[in-house]
Amino acid sequence: MNQDYIQPDNWSIIEEGFDVERVKSSESLFSIGNGAMGQRANFEEYYSGKTFQGSYIAGIYYPDKTKVGWWKNGYPEYFAKVLNAPNWIGIDIEINGENLDLAKCQSVSNFRRELNMKEGIYYRSFDAVLANGTEIAVKVQRFLSLDLDEVGVINYEITALNSDAKIVFKPYVDAGVHNEDANWEEKFWEPISVKHSGNEAFVTARTFKTHFTATTFMQNSVLLEGSSLSVAPVSVQETKDKIQFSYEVAVAKGQTTTIQKIGGYTVSMNHDDTILGAKKSIAKALEIGVSQLTENQKQAWARIWEMSDITIDGDVKAQQGIRFNIFQLNQTYLGKDSRLNIGPKGFTGEKYGGSTYWDTEAYCIPFYMATKDQQVARNLLAYRYNQLDKAIENAEKLGFKNGAALYPMVTMNGEECHNEWEITFEEIHRNGAIAFAIYNYYRFTGDYSYIPEKGLEVLIGIARFWHQRATFSTYRNQYVILGVTGPNEYENNVNNNWYTNYIAKWCIDYTVAQIQRIEGEYPSDYTRIMNKVKLSQAEISAMKKVADNMYFPYSEEHGVYLQQDGFLDKELITVADLDKSQRPINQKWSWDRILRSPYIKQADTLQGFYFFEDHFTKEELEKHFDFYEPFTVHESSLSPCVHSIQAAVLGRMEQAYTFYLRTSRLDLDDYNKEVEEGLHITSMAGTWMSIVEGFGGMRVRNNQLHFEPKIPVQWKGYSFKVNFRNAIVKVEVRQEGTNVSIEGNSDVEVFVNGESQLIK
Amino acid sequence: MNQDYIQPDNWSIIEEGFDVERVKSSESLFSIGNGAMGQRANFEEYYSGKTFQGSYIAGIYYPDKTKVGWWKNGYPEYFAKVLNAPNWIGIDIEINGENLDLAKCQSVSNFRRELNMKEGIYYRSFDAVLANGTEIAVKVQRFLSLDLDEVGVINYEITALNSDAKIVFKPYVDAGVHNEDANWEEKFWEPISVKHSGNEAFVTARTFKTHFTATTFMQNSVLLEGSSLSVAPVSVQETKDKIQFSYEVAVAKGQTTTIQKIGGYTVSMNHDDTILGAKKSIAKALEIGVSQLTENQKQAWARIWEMSDITIDGDVKAQQGIRFNIFQLNQTYLGKDSRLNIGPKGFTGEKYGGSTYWDTEAYCIPFYMATKDQQVARNLLAYRYNQLDKAIENAEKLGFKNGAALYPMVTMNGEECHNEWEITFEEIHRNGAIAFAIYNYYRFTGDYSYIPEKGLEVLIGIARFWHQRATFSTYRNQYVILGVTGPNEYENNVNNNWYTNYIAKWCIDYTVAQIQRIEGEYPSDYTRIMNKVKLSQAEISAMKKVADNMYFPYSEEHGVYLQQDGFLDKELITVADLDKSQRPINQKWSWDRILRSPYIKQADTLQGFYFFEDHFTKEELEKHFDFYEPFTVHESSLSPCVHSIQAAVLGRMEQAYTFYLRTSRLDLDDYNKEVEEGLHITSMAGTWMSIVEGFGGMRVRNNQLHFEPKIPVQWKGYSFKVNFRNAIVKVEVRQEGTNVSIEGNSDVEVFVNGESQLIK
After folding, report:
1. Are the folds of A12-306 and A374-563 the same?
2. I need a surface site. Which of A370, A591, A683, B306 has the fewest CB within 10 A?
3. For residue B468, is pLDDT > 60?
């Protein structure tokens, strides 16, 4: 654990005391989002200290020109990244002629942030003594509305503590923003227009190249002692991409003045006329009113929690951790729009370009599938179906043909947005997770219709890729897969990564089985699809031959599948025997040293055992876990959750609990020393899995839902709900025993430790 | 062969006819240099067509900020590259009010370039009809003086063909240049001063960061019908980094006017006051006079050719090829200055940053060793000795310790200047070539003194590196070397590259043997060195253990050492069976596809057989040649020469001859479709080797020089000279037999086909 300033609390993330060194970290941790937009917890008022400004609009990206040292054929020319969006939260404050800047005050006391996850509201308050001696108390409340998802609301209160004061509020909207990770220091936004009328202002800007138009808007009301002043701005400052109002309020000692700022974005993805859209949004928000909007926000979050909450008794840090994870996932993606997906940093930072990774299929879909309507998971699957043509084009760039599809490692719009050859071209296992998610969706929801409708085409493209990508080794008389990077990115360009070979074989087998099923059960879909993809029996036989004769590296000596052909050549020194000063190795070692070490960034062979648990015995799992776990450094956020689940399966509850804490409090406690850059959103779904699938032991077997609950000794109990085939199954696990209640679909059968649970 | 416009000629490179599409190619092919500076064959007069401007000063570099997509620990922050130097050759021409621009003339006829390699002079001539109808004939002669190596001379003649003409010569010097390969479009030169006096001008500029100061100078004389006009410029145009004179001459129809421009650079590496240095250079040049300077140039080149020429009878293209190679090597490096080295593109382009690669040790040293005084090769060795501390620092960055040295892949000043992890961190075999060159120098020159003086410290640093870099595989019970890139850069991050393992073992063995010899024969050097490097007997034993137990991958089935552990897993389709449309694969295939293919960019295992030929039988060589040659695509310029030598050893003369043509005319015929970017200088030394060591069969055995001459059927004969231990050995091979003459050191013994040759 590397930081511990966040106060333990069941429902809130709380920081107390002002520390300039924590500002960027807290900007990440207190981020808010509503699925359509999100923002780091930057201060509204000007701040001259170290800060990382970030506001993001879902689906708005920019193709930054690729930056590489040495160009290699097949690299994308452009690299889509999430855009830092215009700022609508800014409110400069002037008090008795001096600007409020927390970095420049004589003193700041009672500084407190609270992100109330139950309500979906972010609070900040502090007392400050300005350089000119004026003492003030400030209370701020901010949220992004779930109901009106183009709208955010700020309530900013200032109380004059030691004298009368002239307070100037200077709210603004500003499109003059840039990305910290811009490759060429280019501007991404082109200003189009700046308009204002009364207390409303609109800055419209268009992204270069992608030509998304966004209007960033604000509407301001000023209050004194809670009563509206009905004032207009005393002055308006305009540049080509920014507009700022000034409101002056004379406040007597002890009095409180408030600015209520309604702001947000309307974008051309949703509006023909974004300014008109913005005006309508403001009107709607004003009609509801700030107070009712706030109430609605709490109710909307209550509805989310109703289904997705996990309770933990007797361990407040564990409770806070899981709720933080569930909260952030829901802030990032709500499943309303199939054009959107889940970036590894959500709306909390720029790194990883805000794009879609295999994380969505491998980690996020199970969470959304179980805690939302099945349509949400279906939308996530459809996202890939809609990008199938681009995946085929992507494979063509790498020399594949005839409809073989390679999904990009990273994408915003279906095109590859990554450019390290060992990952872009070689981390091809991502294709496997995309196929697995289709199977997983059907297994959990029971909804087969997706496969004839859309899924089979994706499966065929993927199976074709694996067929063409395998090489027949005359030497082994089997098919091998050469030159790949597995989930463990600390090995590059290896031969026969077990996970990749295994999922490749599985993809082909699963695809062929679905072709047969659809031929029998959905003949018209079969005909439509086969006419489209032109898959011959000869091709099916050829791909089946690859699956049937796939090579898997295995060590007789150790009784385990080898992560890759060369694994045993390595010096097998365990992580426990590695000097702590060398950790994390990705910050301490050069790349070649990492590559030739045995250290595993994230579950790789064990990831395969996670996906295909039922293909192996518990003894096999144990053997592999005992072999690989000691070499795993978990320097990927996606790793500890899988190990937590497997430790739980093996009954190693202390280890499972340790991994659980690591995954659930990864960001709160900043294990990997990088929370300043943003949160690890996608791995948060892994945290959810480590409770539901790990401790709860949830599995689907024979179309039935099974639980084998276990409980860490630290806990009195825990509970969660899942939506299994439209039955809402609530599981309450206590040290004394497990209680299951089921509502809805009465066809489903649920078992606890093998015993059927009647529907109550 | 991809182009054939260069006219065959024994002593000259000749182009006839003007073709805008050939301009950039010819700018490379007609490049001139004198070891201290060099330049592409850009036109003196303004040219609006496609051109690649390039002038370079030896030793002047700039640390460009490294550009990578994804940073990895150990990458250098800066990346030294050769600088495009200020332009001193420019002479804008105005005729009857119109600018001469070959891209804009009504017609250009009789266009001819000739690079006379015997004289070291570049000629260009053409007739042109300008848009205004004026017809002129132009003759230009240019050279960079070998005697005064800061000075170049241009003689530019214009004859008015169809009318009287007012001709304005506008010679200039200009520091406002940039690099085409600049990473961030930064300026590299900061202007310091612009001065002029009479017909002389001086632009002084300083490189940013490295702070090299260079004065670029010119002195102009104008003649009419061969008589000096003693005129001063009619006007002078100055900016902060450029100065341009104008001279006006009224020419009657049929008359000829000439501008003689003396120009060049003086740099702060050699002068405290570069302007004063420039004035002295001009004064010296004027004192000698253009006519005598030209005569001196021819004599200086005659002295070079006297020793380094190779004659070939009966095959003008082969003759032209080898002379072009020898000429370019001598233009690039003359061995006068141990601060300098040989960049892969010499002074002919920017690519590869003009830096030093292992090419110097593996390819160039044999050429310089045999055709120059041994001090030249010693200077090249000392270059690495002088950079030993930085090689140790470089190894430390990658986690090595205790004096282990890893020489950079690419360097200007000892620091690593390359940033692809698979090469920078993994193409570590370069260390082996640097050790091999020390051995090779001693073997050929008989001068052991270099090793106790300097070489042993380098050897110990390198041996320590290999010792630490090897990994003990308990699985194999041998030492392995994991995660390397061999000379074949079409495989990355492989395990147990045979070449690397072999040269690593050899380096340790050779180092330990030299330690023992120096302990016995040079006790005071021994004490000095051991006190400095603190090498214990225990460390020596430990490193010897690695060498004695090194693993070499071997295939019983094929009877060959395997290029690397995974080679046999590949689909072994020969180059002959690869569709021609797929070649060159580095332009057609994505990187992953190249990596999993069996195709070899350049000799790898065979490179080892070349270095260590006497460790293997001819049968073993044949077996390996027959196994690897069919997979070799020779997409590195460094490859065909090694294959040519080995084909000759195996008596396959037709194949040897084909490879010889490919290496010797690589640039003239533009085999790799990239000559526009510059010439392949370092591989030219390989061409020399393919005659002397391949056809000539030159070997040093038991301190004696042996020849086993062979001759391609296409040739009547060939001859070359080598300086072996201060004996000048001239070998003339004809279809009828071989004649050897020896001058100088009478201690040396020379054998032809095993028969001793008496000194005549």
Report:
1. no
2. B306
3. yes
Query: Domains of chain A: which residue ranges?
Result: 12-306, 374-563
CB-based contact B409:B416 (threshold 8 Å)? yes
Query: Which of A419, A586, A592 is nearest residue B426 as measured by Cβ atoms?
Result: A592
Q: How confident is the model at residue B178 (pLDDT cuts 50, 70, 90)?
A: confident
Mean pLDDT of A327-335: 95
Tell me the shortest Cα–Cα distance from A69 to chain B, in angstroms. 5
CATH number of A12-306: 2.70.98.40
In this model, does residue A184 exceed pLDDT 70? no
User: Which residue in A466, A358, A471, A361 sits closest to A404, CA to CA?
Assistant: A466
* B569 CB within 8 Å of a chain A CB: yes
Ramachandran category for residue A114: left, alpha or beta (phi over 0 → left; psi -120 to 50 → alpha): beta
Task: List, as residue ranges, the binding site of B.
Answer: 358-359, 601-602
| Nearest-CA distance A548 → chain B (Å) | 18
pLDDT beyond 70 at A688: yes
Q: For the domain A374-563, what is the CATH code?
A: 1.50.10.10
* B418 Cβ neighbours under 8 A, 6+ residues apart: B76, B79, B408, B409, B410, B424
Q: A7 touching B, CB under 8 A?
A: no
CB atoms B592 and A476 under 8 Å: no
Residues of B in contact with A591 (CB under 8 A): 72-74, 421, 425
> Between residues 406 and 425 of chain A, which touch chain B (CB distance below 8 Å)?
419-422, 425
Residues of A in contact with B560 (CB under 8 A): none
**Of B277-291, B329-343, B537-551, where does mean pLDDT reach its minimum?**
B329-343
Give the CB-side neighbour count of residue A756, counting CA atoms within 13 A: 6
Helix (H) or strand (E) holding B278: helix B274-288
For residues A600 and A628, the answer to whether their CB atoms sit within 8 Å is yes
Q: How far is A650 from chain B (nearest CA, A)?
A: 29
Nearest residue in chain A measured CA to CA from B72: A591
Residues of A with catalytic function: 489
User: For B395-440, how does the pLDDT look when each residue is reduced to its tens digit (9 = 90+)?
Assistant: 999 999 999 999 999 998 898 888 889 999 999 999 999 999 999 9
Taking the C-alpha atoms of residue B195 and residue B443, their distance in angstroms, rounded to an integer, is 53
Compute the distance between CA of residue A623 and CA of residue A655 in angstroms, rounded to an integer. 16
DSSP structural state of residue A683? H
CB atoms within 10 A of CB A223: 19
Put simply, the answer to whether A482 touches B565 (Cβ < 8 Å) is no
Closest CA to B56 of B359, B354, B276, B326: B354
Whole-angstrom Cα distance, residue A238 to residue A219?
16
Using N-to-C axis directions, what is the helix angle for B290-308 and B274-288, rounded to 10°?
A: 90
